[in-house]
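In response to a reviewer's request, we include the raw inputs and outputs for one of the modeled complexes. The two entities were modeled together in a single run.
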Amino acid sequence: MASHGDRTGRGAKVKMGGLYARRPDIFPRKVDGFYRRLKWAIMAATLTIYYVTPWLRWDRGPYAPDQAVLIDLANRRFYFFAIEIWPHEFYYLVGLLVMAGVGLFLVTSTVGRAWCGYACPQTVWTDLFLHIERAIDGDRNAQLRLKRAPLGPAKIARRAAKHGAWLVVAALTGGAWVFYFADAPTLARAFAEGSAAPVAYATIGVLTFTTYTLGGLMREQVCIYMCPWPRIQAAMLDERSLIVTYKDWRGEPRSHGTKRAAIVEEPSRVGDCIDCGACVAVCPTGIDIRNGPQLACITCALCIDACDQMMAKVGRPRGLIDYATLEDSRAEAAGAAPVPVARKLLRPRTIAYFGLWGAIGLAMMFTLGQRSRLDLSVAHDRNPLWVQLSDGSLRNAYTLRLRNMEARPREVRLSIEGLAGAAMWPSTAGEQTAARAITIRLPADQVAQQRIYVRAPGEGAAAAPFAFHLAAIDDPAAADAEQTRFDRPETQP
Amino acid sequence: MTDKPDAAGNQPSGPQSMGHEWDGIEELDNPLPRWWLWVFYGCIVFAIGYCVVYPAIPLANRATHGLWAWSSRGEFAIETAAVDKSRAAIRDELARTPIERIDPNSPLMRAAIEGGRAAFKVHCVQCHGSGAAGSRGYPNLNDDDWLWGGDLASIRQTIEHGARQPGDEDTRVSQMPAFGRDGMLTRPEIDDLVSFVRVVSRQERADAASQRGALLFEANCAVCHGPDAKGGRMFGAPNLADAIWLYGSDREALGNTITNARAGVMPAWGGRLDPATVNMLAAYVHSLGGGE
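The model returned the following structure tokens for the whole complex.
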């Protein structure tokens, strides 16, 4: 096995020429600093959320699962702490997606590609895989040496250890994913006994493969070639968005090697950049930030840490590479003061994004609080439309679907609104129980189907409108109603 | 077109021309893509195997059977056998137990009703209609009016033995005389009787004709239809005082009924269907809304 530079060596064998670019070798050097520690913290937080969430419990009583976050595909329910989403309430998930989209716009227009640099799973897992690689193969220089070394037992052992460790991480990633879709402790026990559902093993297999491939082998190529976001963000950034910038007005002309003497003798003739290449060596996407803002920059800010270290060593102020807006860069180059942070963040565009984001969130919270957990739908039996009864009255039949979306059985009152002289009874009870309102016990968190017979006088409109009204006995505000009609023969017999 | 590699050692894409050219469009000797070629060879191998194993080659009046002797009909038989096997326990219990002794809220009764729903679509809809609403001469099974009783046992007996089936001593038989055709009543008398029946069924107001009809009814009809004209299930005599009419309630239909009588028939399903299916049909008909 070769390091990732050789994987794309296919280009040499396929004699097409020019269609595919070879992937350059990228061995990011280890670096420490403020942004590196921030990335550690965010990685710890996101991975903790990912692995711990399925194990959180939330008591919903005896009729619903006690997993705090559960996507129950078999029963078509989504549980999120106190919120339970039914399939017909899918618009809440759409709302969340819209919020996530607007949130990305908001973040991008203020702090640039912070999502790409810190929180995107591709970044987090690639970062983790790079760390494992460094732990096994050593830092950048050791990795370069190892790549050039001939294939021998030591190299094979290291490669096996690295890919083995990656596969373990990948398998754990897939293994955590499936716990969101089933009761975690039960599924964990089933894994221990080897008796989990085949789809669970298949899901873990697929996610192990994708994690290993995307995080271990493809890495920055996902960001540069596969991900649409770098393209979209070009439209989201403006002159006042924070991006990682090399301050060329301060760094140029670069000094290197023999020129260093000039720094001492005539400081004004050279810039602060000592052309040490540290910013390039630490970059996980293998770019040179000094070439200016570019699509491949995920703004992970590791070059800031690397450059700050070098500036400290040569006794120059930090921030030759730093977060800055294009506007500030221009202002500073011209000798003016940068815009204060508060003014960078508070501008019409960000306020509009934030307002939209907050409005959607508030609207969703409001509707979540207002939604009725009872639902009624009525289907009128069509064959036959009506039945002549011996006493001269007519009978129509309806199939009612009664949704009780609360995790407890509920007594409900079903009544007829309109339709003079009508009475109804459930098909499971006799006609002697006929009344204008009946009480039904609905099972917890289920859709109950109930056939209802309605009897009404034979004289009247051929299609008389009326409504079924459903209300919880313990809370009359929890109610629903549906309009339907009572059919009579077109010509009276 | 040249196949010389360029300076970087890459073969230019552009293989030899086949020498065919039409209007400037040239046929090139491009090799097939490898993956496509291997899939193609794989398909040939698969096809040979398929022809050996499955019926494939048409002969004069049949096709080769193939090594596995597979047939869609055989597969269907296996599937239906599997379904029958899975339902055997329920069918056995339904065949053994009279339907009226099954708990109306039990899963067994629900299974019986669903089974009956399917069997009804096959055996009964031709006369009674897909919604069991019947039509003129064929009873509506949804309503609350039953000639021979609407409880489970009575319905089952009607299904099992049918109506007016010769040779079946338990069959449903009622014998209304053809009063007009056989000269038992004159035409004016029949008119009077029609008036009376339309009065008891609240379709007309009483008048002299209906009063004459009342006397005729008492003499000729009350034996079977009862003194109050509410019918009698012992004889299968319809209730004449209600709103449900098998053959219509207008003057012409009533006159025709009294003159020529009516005698509908229904097959005895006991000899054609197994006891479990008869029980299931009874359960389904009983569940239609008029069951007693």
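As requested, we also summarize the result in words. The longest strand of chain B covers residues 17-22. Chain B touches chain A through 29 residues (CB under 8 Å).
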